[in-house]
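This follows on from our talk about sequence and fold. I would like you to pick a protein and set down its sequence and fold. Go ahead and set the record down below:
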Amino acid sequence: MGECVGLPSRRAVLGGAGALAAASLSGRLLAMDDAPPLSRRLGVQLYMLGKLSIAELPAQLKALRETGYREVETSPLPGASAEALRTELDRAGLACPSCHIGLESMVPGMLSLADPEPAAAYAKALGANHVVVALFPFMSALKRRPDAQAVLSDLKRLGPVIGDIARSMTPEDWTDVARRLNEAGGKLAAAGLRVGYHNHNVEFVRLANGQSAFDLLVAQTDPKLVDFELDLGWVAAAGIDPAGLLKRLGPRVSQLHLKELAATPANTALKINSADLGAGVQDWPAIADAIGASSVRHAYVEQEPPYAPSGLEAARRGYAFIQPLLARKGL
């Protein structure tokens, strides 16, 4: 993802552990209790904008703000420091409460929670209070394949291979993922940051012990350190009812990806047919009711490509559908 330039010192970011960190986190949570409702600070995952340079970003962020979005979720941009991204977000009037950073690096120099201090520095510089792991760590298994480099350079091949890796993992493998999430959560807590895990549909594979990998992660991660960013589209792609799962998980879910599902055979192979919000099969009134009874603090519109005509236009259509629905529900 490129080097991050000009980040705060590690000591400065991770200083203030113990009581000071707890007070800082408590203060933010109290502030969230007084925050406007979700419908008035709806977010969007910048993944929808595709690969952007920092020079292209201002116009895109301005368009999102004019659409009505108030928050974004992002990942580190290649060649752009956190400060540069934060500057553009501030200019556009957008907040970034959450960013995606993996448990491991896919390429040399990429930020990851394997080295939590620079990852925490990046999130803090953005103004984020959540660091979310977007996918289980798969690189070790991938590197054992003779075609690893070819797979990494071909996204059409990478998705199915990741699905195969997930379905070959044992309960012990997923337990190790939970351990690593807990470890990262403990280290980032000293900086006042929360670690989350974002699901796809591969985590709903049934393991040899009869449990799903997702339920294992929920059971074996520490609620004090790790929560979940529930991607409603990928949940539905696994054949799971998103509203029911949100209700079942209760306070473990702090963030959502609001994603539509076109007709998709239930699977755990990283396959999904995405659509504009409201143009698919999701029961959004039921989902909105479940959100209203939940502990969700942030929700981001997201859609999988391809887009017609663009990701930005899809984000606009998504906002036009979901914002009035949330507002009508008093959310």
